[in-house]
## 1
Amino acid sequence: MNCTEDQFRSILHEEAADITADSVPPLSLPDASPHRLLGAGSRRRRWLVPLGAAAAVTAIAVAATVFAGSGRAVQPDSAAPSLWRGVPLYYLTLSGGTPQQPTQELVVRDTRSGATLATARPSGCLPSELSAAADDRTFAIACQLRHGGRPIKTDRLLLARFDPATRRLSVTALRLPPISSYSNIAISPGGTRIAVMSYKLPDPPSRGVATLRVYSIATGAARTWTAANVFMRGDGVSWGRGSLLAFDFETTASDYTYSPELPGSGVRLLNTNAPSGSLVGASRLVIPTTHLPGGYLNLLAGQLVVSGNGATVATILCLQPGNERAAEFAEFSVATGKLLRRWMPSAVADQSVIWSDRSGKTLVVIARAPGGFPRKAGLGIMTDDQFTWLRPPAVGAPGIAF
Amino acid sequence: MKMPPSSAGAAAFVAENSGLPPAPDEPGAAVAALYREHALGLIRLAYVSQGSRAAAEDIVQEAFCGLYRRWNQLTNSDKAVAYLRSSVLNGCRNAARRSQRPPRAVTYLPPADSAESAALIGELRREVIAGLRRVPARQREALVLRFYLDLSDPEIAEVMGISVNTVRSSLRRGISALGIALKETT
């Protein structure tokens, strides 16, 4: 059966239309007001509030002392100056992308203060994926084209440059062929090349073709490596030292179950100066995903970052199959493929790795606080045992490039 | 959040797009007003995600009760709808967990429709919905948000609390999984 996306869309609407307005049951709220639900007689015992607050502060202070050094979260103001060493001064993110503000703007922010330094709005497309070069002011953008107001499966590649002196962000469309929206992009540290990893599914879907293309921004020349007849899980790409590119190559026998990965799966390293050809043949497996102690690699797109010196890969180690939120940070050696360390600061819950410094010891991550309502989410800098939230504190993290 | 104009639930979501009505002072009245505006759309969302009409209604009721309980903690009433949507999706996930049928172990069972209703429901639709039920929860959620609510990748990321890259990955896997499920069904 050939079910196109439009058919799928209309089938979902037909299914939803089974629920009609007259079938909606009346709302049944608890009798007590929210105030009363907090505890009967609370008004009478208001004098207890300061005492309770003092007790809570004491408890938090004691807990902070006990747990000091084991994954504590600190605020940017109190962070040690060394924390910022090597961290890019500026990063690119997106504003909007919410029902209230669907139009998205590119926003350059100051990493330390979170202040907005420049904005730009590409015309005719919706920015969806971002990547940053090493100079913290050159960015590549995949911008999703729209047809009749609906996103289509094609992205245009854009290049953005931020000038700190004038605080201007200039955006130009690259003369490169459009890419599939299901692609992951990475601009090289020098800002001269763009890697595009895409996975094309046949229709009807079955085993597909994974394609890695590396374009020269100046000339548009491309080298292409492909792997046919594969089920791919991730498509993360991250530039390493020089012309080396690490990519996530997780192939399975079946894509819709969490089936074991096939031999050859894991993080592979490709010399992008090699001639076009076989993706597997031209690359070497550096971190196999099988036989990992205590979990398996969760290399969902974008969660794979090579350190600046090319020696390590930071990623996420998933502890429960199928539960991407039960995870720890993990660092692997590129040379040996060995797991060097795994850790999880108590200050954060689920996360993604966005950037690594030269040594791989300082990471920028998207994180969420483990509790609270609404859960605090945002960017943070993580060293061995310390996690520091960046401003602004709450971001929906629709797209961020360091 | 967008809904096509042809859908009967459009009004609720158009109202959401155009901003919330002024929140009455009384939490119960405010929550009731939100329920009138959004219950239909949210029940449909839960129904499409989860598959059971009764469970969908329970999930939405629970979401509104949760909002009512936490009304005083809401710093911005504009966040109420976003909270409800996330609560509904969480409710669907919990319902799936309670059913103790993890995605990998799901055995395909055709829906228990009567002969009459089976005849009424198109064969393609039945197969697609059955296939959708076999897709792992997160991927299914991403598919529903994309193809039912027409949300963009960043919008889905915000609703699901995951990164855009993970959304893309989930969508791609979900489409693949759905295709395979359909292939095996036929």
## 2
Amino acid sequence: MNQRTSVDLRNRSIAAFLSFLVPGLGQIYQGRTAKGVIFFVSVATLFVLGMALGDWSIVYWRWVNPLKSLEKFYGWYLLQLPAGLLALPGLIQATLAEYGMDPILWGWQAEPSQDQINSLYPRLGKLVEMGTIYTEIAGMLNVLVIFDAWDGPAYTSDTGRAAASVAATAPQAVEASPTNSAAVSAEPIANPGV
Amino acid sequence: MFSSIHIYFYVIPLVAAISLVYSGTRHESTTRILVQAARLFGVILGVLAASTAALLLVNAWV
């Protein structure tokens, strides 16, 4: 039970990991189904739409040392990767290619050929950048989703006040609430005479 | 398919997703999430529209 928000987060590590794999899955695991669906629809739609804008060729990774050849380093993927399973095939394909193995999943998110990359901008123009931004923002939004699975919402649902400020201004009230009885009994009272 | 859409309209799904996820991380109640997301969506689009209008105005002047 989250002391600040009265939300049962179950095993928060598992929830956060599930939300990393599939946006919103951690919330569904915690029983916050509607919220999980909202997260999944938002992040997955944005990511897939971004990939479609970039002709399915803008999410990939290549193992390159940026200190040695910065021009070949595809850093955008680092922002796409937090989208979890939506972007993880790119990492797997790059690792397979690094070891000289054939791509799997019909080459899904495998690094496109240089000719294919060069043809993207003449064919699609700004849509390539727009698609890249979509997928990057989707990845960054999933960081928020993961954090929500880990720590619950920022505000208490009944008052709308910032949970952190509630806990800071009235710690006794938070600890004494009936929904946090487990937390109260687990922590000994430091100074019962006061 | 996508090239026929004006580039400005591509901001709409982006702002919608940002509003929904941000509001989702703030609140727990679904109703409150949706209301807050709709409000945030309007504010972001309003700010973007106003700044775009200002830039277009300046551009037309110069």
## 3
Amino acid sequence: MPTPDLPIVRGTLDLLILKTLSWGEMHGLAIVRWLEQVTHQQLQVEEGALYPALHRMEGKGWLESVWGYTEQNRQAKFYRLTAAGRRQLAAELSRWKSYTSAVELVITAEAGSAR
Amino acid sequence: MSWPRVRRAFRLLVAPDRIRDDIDAELRFHIEGRIDDLMARGLSRAEAEREVNARFGNIDVYMEETRAIDERTIHEERRMELLDTISRETRQALRALARSRGFTFIAILTLALGIGATTAVYTLLDRVVLNPLPYPHAERLVKIGSLVSGKTVAGEWGVSEAGYFYYLEHNRSFDALGVFTRNEVSMVADGRAERVRMARVSASVSRVLGAHAALGRLINADDDRPGVAPVVVLSHAYWISRFGGDPAIIGRPVTIEGFPMEVVGVLAPDENVPLVSAAPAPELWLPLGLDPAARPINSHYLTAVGLLKGGVSIDAASADLARLTARFPEVLAEAYSPAFMRDYHFAAKLTQLREAVVGESARTLWMLLGAVALVLVIACANVANLFLVRIETKRREMAVRTALGADRVHLAWHYLTESTLLALVAGTLAVALAWGAIHILVAMAPTSIPRLAEINLGGSSVAFAFVVSLGTGVVFGLLPLGSRAVSVSTLHDGSRGTAVSRGRRAIRGALVVAQVALAVVLLAAGGVMLRSFERLRAVHPGFDANGVIALDLSLPHARYGDYRSTSELYRQLQGRISSLPGVESVGATTSLPLEGGGHCATTFAEGDATPTPGAAQCIRYVYVTPGYFGTMGIALRGAAPDWSAVSGEHAGAVISGSVANRFWADRSALDGGISGGDGETFFRVAGVTGDVRIDDLREPNPEVVYYPIVPAKGTALWGPADAITMVVRVKSSDPLAIVPAIRRTLVRIDPTIPIANPRAMSDVVAKSMARLSFTMVLLGVAGAMALVLSAVGLYGVISYIVGERRGEIGVRMALGARASEVGGMVMLQSVRLAAIGVAIGLVCAAAATRVLRSLLFEVSPTDPLTLVAVAVFLVLLAALASYAPARRAARVDPIEVLRA
């Protein structure tokens, strides 16, 4: 197993969770697995940090949760996006995009171009 | 997956254990699943666990963090839920109250009247009684006097100079002791003369009372020596009213009683000192200047006040002073003989200053608070009845709510919101009512109630009104919980359940009976007061007040120091005033009837064996000028001396009938000899008056000796009358209109003499009855409110019963009962309820009116006539209140009822 080497940027965990859940309802473990799969295990996240984030977002009304059964017939807590959560995802996405494009502009700028 | 279709709020309303278990299960699932993942890739269980733990981080920390988040969320949700409930219920209650306007209007008005009246009286009580003394350590302040009870005198005297100094030096109970005397004097400042209230104080009085100067200084020990310093301190109120609050007042020269003095200070604003009686505060403070080395004299003219040491009780201090007083015959032998101590039972008497100032008013006001509280209870009974009706009419609505899942708590919320809203509106209205009522109360209250002028509706009164209204609101809101639980069965039940309503009817009957009983108490109290008032008004005061005015003069002592100058002035003044148009006659006295005052002197009749000291009677003496008796319309046997007799120094004295009886019994007193003081030189008795009420209308035949203002040759008086009250009889419907003319006349004779207190004699008479009439009017108003409220209560209950018994009445009429019989039956029911209430009320009234005893005059607290009248009146009222419902009952159409 390759060692994850990209520490997660502060504040992006919410965005990752919201985006992940936009594909459908999932329990916490499934969210972690999904993130591993799509990032080819490059993202380093302390898995425990997921749960305070999930509960906080539920408190804000972005997520709702229910206990259900997995395919292996084990009890798990499933989360899904609410309408408010979808709006939040859209907002965070657009903020993320403008952020990264701004950062991109800075790091690709050539010396003296401001003159 | 089945997602529940419930709001998150409800899902989150869970216990803390549930939260913990939930999170625990969630995290365990994660870790177990992860281990399975790794083991599926070939790791051993131990390796997998280590790897998972490393990736997960500190599980305890995350768990705790998650739990904290959940709890915060739940807390927030609950708060929102509560706010939501309150605003929803409030909106609903407002809508409901707006729908039933009649109920809302009457309930609010009734409560507001009750609470408003209570708040108004509470405000008086709060200001006058509960917090009446503006001094620091008010609870440690006492008034010290001497209690005497001999064969011929009984009462409370002040203290003597020597006694004061002895107490001062030897007591163990006081931080400070002070003495003062009060008087009225004439003061001239800026060329304008005025009569003012003055206190001569020892320097220590400021320490006792904790008084401060707003400007300059107070009387100090250097001023307060024999041969007193000519300095004066002004009260704050007087400084403002007389000198416009002039900051340059210090050092200003003024003339008091003809002596030049200097203003050295102004008291701080709230110090209406010394206020050891209900009398108005003095306007000037002067040093008293007692000499500790003076020969002891048995004269108790000083008022003493003391500041108890911290932790010393008034009883301990009394014992302390009793110990000292017992030594008087030994240490102050010149003034206190053992015989005197024995014959007079001479003893020190300590009174809480608070009691001395407000004791009498406190009792009146507490009683009135009791009366208005009863009115409030009656009002509450009415509102309770209204609420019961409302519960009845809302039973179906409540049943629907119950069926839809509302539990008892929700129903309680509903009722509580409604009643609290109602009570708060009533409370607001009550504050407005109380504000108006206080102004009326203050205007009519007797002047013997101290510090009334400063009264206003303050924060504590508003708080009182709202606490009372919230209290009633909560009680009414909880009322429905006490009644039978609402059940869904009400929904199938088309008609009213008779078993339930029988219970309700009993409750409502009991409420009305209680109302009537309380109304009887209030009316009986008002009734005996009214009868006392009538009796008192019927009393002939011994003079004719109509068309007579009185005004006070005080002559500067420096210019009018002897009999000749004072009598010349009075004679000249009387002559000039008599010739004013409209004036019939003029006279003057040192003590006006019904205003009391004056001094007494040991009095002897010529020819009697000189009585032993102590057995002699101290009889009040008054100076009068010629013309006094005629002007006052006082009946006289014999003839009062005229001016020629007075100026010729051979004027006799006039005595009251009671004095004539005491000394001459069945013989004629005329031309007998009477002496005040020495028992050796005698005035001839020139006339005998009828019964003139001196202190109080209640006290018949007071003993008085009227001396001329100039002593007859060979006799002695106590000095010239330099402070006197002129009486003027005028032919006019507005006798006071003559005052400016009198002022002008006086200015022409001597502009340094101030005129104070012009008043109509009829007002003096009214004022002497003020406490009685104040109490009577307030009790009367309380009684009237009780009456109206009870009538409304009776009407409501009887109407309700008639409505409820329509079916039964219809059957009776179908079976041949006549309309008049049915109406009679209804009225009888009302009268029966009232009769029970009256019976209970009479018993309570007999007990309650006892507290009025001290106010009553020639009427027993259980005056049978009053009680019978009240009883009959209420029963008639009950019949009247049921008249309309009875007519409705008589008009019931049996066919319509039976068909329904």
## 4
Amino acid sequence: MVEQMDLSMVNWARAQFAMTAMYHWIFVPLTLGLSFLIAFFESIYVKTGNEEWKKVAKFWMILFGINFAIGVATGIILEFEFGTNWSNYSWMVGDIFGAPLAVEGIVAFFLEATFFAVMFFGWDRVSKKFHLFSTWMVAIGSNLSALWILVANGWMQFPTGMAFNPDTARFEMQDFWAVLFSPVAIGKFTHTTSSGFLYASLFVISISSWYLLKKRHVQMARKSILVASVFGLLSSGYVAFTGDEAAYNNARKQPMKLAAFEGLYEGQRSAGLVAAGIMNPNKKVNDGQSPFLFEVRIPGLLSLLANRSPGTFVPGIKDLVYGNEKEGVMGAEEKIVKGREAVKQLALYKQAKKAGDSVAAQTALDRFNQNQDYLGFGYLKSPEEAVPPVSTTFYAFHIMVILGGLFPVIFLLYLAFALKDTLVHQKWLLFLGLISVFLGFVAGQCGWVVAEVGRQPWAIQDLLPVSVARSNLTVGAVQTTFFMFLAIFTILLIAEIKIMLKQIQIGPEGR
Amino acid sequence: MFGNLDTTVLQQIWWIIDSLVGSLFLFLIFVQGGQTLLGQLGKTSMEKSLIINSLGRKWELTFTTLVLFGGALFAAFPKFYATSFGGAYWVWILILFTFVIQAVSYEFRKKPGNFLGEKVYEIFLFINGSVGILLIGAAVGTFFTGSNFTLNEYNLVFWTNPLRGLEAAFSLFNLSLGLFLVFNARILGAMYLINNIDFSGYEAMEKRTRRAVLVNLLCALPFLLYVLGSLLFMDGFGVDPKTGVVSMVSGKYLSNLLAMPLVLIFLLLGIVLVLWGVVTTALRGKNSGIWFGGLGTVLVGLTVFFIAGFNNTAFYPSKADLQSSLTIYNASSSHYTLTAMSYVALIIPLVLAYIVYVWRLMDSKKITESELMGTQADEMY
């Protein structure tokens, strides 16, 4: 099945997907959060009748619209890349993965698309209340679409509610609700959307801070900051809570990812959490070298984070690769043996079925079933291949966490000074707020790096490695489309930034 | 309810649903058709603004319908999704590319500091409306002319032509279907603009638009006739219902039409409705042509998808290896997924209802010059 696989093509396909997703994630979190902020602003306007709030809502709506368009443009590529670059994946799991994408289209995208036109062009065409309703529908539709795509992503991280069909050699859905309500899927949705709310709040605070520093549109900026700081503060608390939940889920479903983002090579009881550290770039899984050149650990905290109990064992990369009998950890080495047996028995089963030998087919099927949980490992060439890029995952995780700790402080300070009405005098805070949107961007991107790089080499955790998931394409074809999309996305990003800066410079005057 | 249905019935239901979504997309590409008319109908900046703002309130519906079409095919017929997208790589990549550049063009075109300039975004819109739709037509054409792929025992797709799907555009039938779609989209686009814009003070533009409806019909007709004539006489990819063996059957699509009289009625009624839409818009000075043309297009679209997929026919046939051809029965998801998706599909009437409601609400007043020059001028496209 994988004899002809070209790994360099796989890496280009991965790079292309990563690049598209990273561009997409510049715009989407803003859409998720800004849509709700606009709905809040407009709700206050409808409730109070104060035209100033309408002006606030309309100003942010302009920026929302510019951002929304390019989010749509990058999103369509992501959906269809599953087919173009990962066609074997699409066939093997389309039965399960396709369903949330279709539901996303039916339930969420049309809500967004239909009411978007009212939100932007309906001010004088529909009643005030119907306009507000439309704005809320856009916000709900945007976030509903996030639900379904994140359910799909959550399923890739923790495949559940399905069974492998040896006749068609693919996975088939058995329980829709198990897919929808899997703890990983729900965790993904809540953590990701709340991080989007946080990012959008930083965006509003950043631009408003610039206005306050320039002493322009002061009333609008103050109003915007007041709402955004409350929304951001609540969101950042929720991001922390769901982040903790995600780590707990990782410990159960993706222990290798947890070990990678903590740089934990040797499993430990009362494992400490690395507060800060520099990784040893020469470290190999089993070379006995220290993984860190420098580290500051908080004792017992990783065990607490992973298992909600400080004295418990957290497996390290070495345990997960070579096994740890004492702690009951099966390593990739042993799983590969079982996986290869599953692959072999699947081929024997298909041969026997073709030859009409039902006894041999049943024997092969029984043996396959005993090993099918390790099917994906059968395609790995060595146990070390089960290890994701550790340094990348480690740094991304720690940058995300450090920034995640900074954001609630920023929101709290903004809220406190806004309530005291002394914000305009806090120049240092306004400068911090101004750059905070870039920090939010970095934190969001790092989050996705942890989630996706940290689960390599799997397209579907433990069941389908990326090398088997890909399409049968030449390296040249994928390279060409990589650079094609890189060029167009970059051009469009430059255009978006220039337009947005111009609109910010113009401000809400005359609107 | 759906769980008790036979898998075959569910597969047919999902082919009908996908066909309906695909056919609605063929109607909604009036947006793309309108985009290609921008330079021809809009002679001044304000005339162009009227066109862009009229189309710009609908482009997302078309875009979303395309995304749903892809998602629904992925969920219901994953083997098709994997085979076609992973195999006919270049044709799909180019189609997607044209939709990427469309998505930003409405929003960015008039905005100050837009980096590329107004003209470039207009060219983007033209490329999307012409190349994008032509290639979609060519891709649909392969439902009848076949593609160059084989599937191995694990259903991995191997494409046997180095052009990876672009070769479809070099078939006269596929090319004709693509060109017909482009011209039909232009007919629909012009009819939509007539319906949606208040031409007071822009009578010359109105005249040009009504004329464009007729001219584009005349352009579309030869291609339509060629496609129809070919369909009636060409060999098709038949499937033996007992063995699943695929073979070439002479006059297959004609026999499909005759075996499904309702589909034949759809085809004839669809063509008549489109023609009536053109007549009523171009010659009788009415504004309602888009509804006739739109419904007619949906009916013709349903005909295309139904004769490709029903009556023991391979809807995604392989020229390279007949037995690799895909049917709605061998390419579908499992019974469970089709059942679950059928329950989700129950929401579609509600979705259609709110789309129609909002459409009527928003379009109850036509787009006017004064709207584009009023206090909200800087919020318009």
